[in-house]
Amino acid sequence: MTSPDDAPMPNNQPANDDQPTTPMDPITEATMQIPHDIESPNFIERRYTLSVQQLFQAIHDQLTTGATFTLDEEDARTGMVRFHAFDGAQCTVTVTAEGALGSVIRLAVTNDDGNRRSKEFFTVLDRRLGVAQTIDPAGSDTSIYAPVMPKKHTSKLAVWGIIIGALFTFFAFASDSGPSWFLGFIAALLSGMSLYTTRKNGPKQGRILSYVGLGLIAIGLVVGGLKAIVSNVQDKADQMPECTSYTWTDSELSKMLPEPQSKHGEVTRDSSDQFNIEICDTSVEQFNTYAADVKAAGFDKDYSKSEDSFHASNEEGYSVSILYEFLDVNDVMEISISAPQEPTDSSASTDGSASDSDTTTNNESSDGKDAASSSDGAKSDSSPASEQPAQNEQPNTAASDDFKATMDSYEAFFDEWIQFMTTYNAEGNPLGMLAEYTQMMTRYSEMMSRMDAIDETTLTPEQQQYFLEVQGRINEKLLSANLQQPY
Fold first, then answer.
1. How far, in Å, CA of 33 to CA of 210, rounded?
2. Which of 92, 3, 86, 90 is nearest to 45 (CA)?
3. CB 106 within 8 A of CB 32
4. CA 275 to chain centre
């Protein structure tokens, strides 16, 4: 038998490209002798927890794609592979199965100083197989090479889910207005995504962190929900009146109104200029009936009726306001009546100016009559001349100033009314603001009465222009505040 050192390298390549390749005959068992001298430094044996097919295919791929070694021959039936290195090292590998533990690779090498090519062969093969040297699970001293699971990195989504979830829970405990639901949504999104990336075969680890983030979100939701419920109950309790038995007062204002059917409620204000009372145990039908009774009692001027409110005034200027609140525990009807306000100083000033103007006009008329009587023979000619200046007389300056003051006060009132109604609507029409609301409606009625008293046919072109400018500014302010006039 030819020794491995003396055996020539088989030449299966054609002499030129036109000659066919000589087929390679399968090697017989007689020529496949493998040295079994394990004491030889050129013999290496390794055990793998992989099948023979996996090892044989990995060796084949390594030899056919690498640059260091060249495949000479292989036999998949016997698991034998022969190859050589570029520096003359001759190698023979045999892969055999060994029980349930896996397979064994035996490598015999000649012309390999220092086992450099042997080490290189196994280094590349182990990297391709993804294995590492471990302790034999059977308990023997022999090392075994097994696949190493790649190390997974901790999911950043899970970490950020915990951070944001902790902030969400902190605000749920610390803030009086409850947690930030936006933070809760972001934390839930991140933790949910981390559950997918940390699945059993996922690319990341940290599934426990994902559950921690979801737990923090659940705590924040529970605390925030409880705070919202308690706040809602407290707000309703603050709005509810003392539903005890009341006594209808005998004040001048209360005598102008019919007494409600329900006898449970609370008088919140009783004075000479305003009377407020909150009536409990009132149904919608009772509210509608009471509003009709108030209207029949004389409050039929400038009235306004809706499903939960009634506003009107009478001939003397007294105004009444009725609001109906649909509450969970008890439906409440709040009644308010206000006395008319005293005339303003501007009205008195207007009356005084008018009196002075009348006096001046009378004096001028008397002087004109004396002058006319002292003229002889010219009476018929002087009379038309004296009447002509009276027809072309310009409006009194004081009256013009009073008109401008009235329009300015009209615009100033609407500025105040828009500011109040914006707050009133934003807070949900609270019962605590009903008294102020009633006063605003009373002032509104008085202001509209003053505006209705203006005869637009007597206004000068300048006054007409100013009137339209004020109305335009008020309409723009109402439109910007998304409000409209109550009547």
1. 59
2. 92
3. no
4. 44
Q: Both ends of the chain: CA-CA distance in Å?
A: 122
The pTM score is 0.33
Residue listed under structure tokens 């590349």? 124
Residue entry with tokens 């206004």 = 459
Q: Give the C-alpha distances (Å, rounded to integers) separating 169 from 44, 182, 232.
A: 62, 12, 20
C-alpha R_g of the chain:
53
Distance CA 252, CA 149 (A): 93
Find how far residue 373's CA is from the centre of its chain.
89
Enter the tokens of residue 369. 């009559």
| Separation of alpha carbons 453 and 448, rounded Å | 9
CB 117 within 8 A of CB 85: yes
Q: Sheet containing 143-147: give its strands across.
A: 69-75, 80-85, 90-98, 102-110, 43-48, 143-147, 131-135
Q: Between the CA of residue 105 and those of 3, 55, 70, what are the distances in Å? A: 22, 8, 18
Integer angstrom CA distances of residue 49 from 98, 101, 138, 317: 10, 6, 12, 103
Of residues 421, 432, 409, the one with CA closest to residue 477: 421
Running DSSP on this structure, what letter comes out for residue 176?
T
Q: Contact at 8 Å (CB) between 431 and 440?
A: no
In the three-class reduction of DSSP (H, G, I as helix; E, B as strand; rest coil), residue 108 is classed as strand
Q: What is the pLDDT along the chain (487 residues), one digit of tens a residue?
A: 333 444 344 444 444 444 444 343 443 333 334 344 444 457 888 989 898 999 999 999 999 998 889 999 999 899 999 999 998 899 999 999 987 668 999 999 998 888 889 999 999 999 998 888 887 666 566 678 888 776 778 889 999 999 998 998 888 888 776 678 888 899 899 999 999 989 887 888 889 999 999 999 999 889 888 888 877 766 666 655 667 888 888 888 888 999 898 888 888 888 888 898 888 888 888 889 999 999 998 998 888 888 888 999 998 889 999 988 766 556 788 899 988 876 544 444 444 444 444 444 444 444 444 443 444 443 434 444 444 444 444 445 556 778 888 888 888 888 888 888 888 887 777 766 777 887 888 888 888 888 888 887 788 878 878 888 888 888 888 888 877 666 4
DSSP string over 245-291: E-----SHHHHTSPPPS--EEEEEEE-SSEEEEEE-S--HHHHHHHH
Amino acid identity, position 301? K
**H helices within 136-180, ranges in order?**
156-174
Instruction: Report the alpha-carbon distance of residue 160 to residue 221 in Å, rounded.
Output: 18
Burial class (CB in 10 A: 0-12, 13-18, 19+), 178: middle
Q: How many Cα atoms sit within 13 Å of 48 on the Cβ side? A: 25
Six-digit token pair at 28? 């017989």
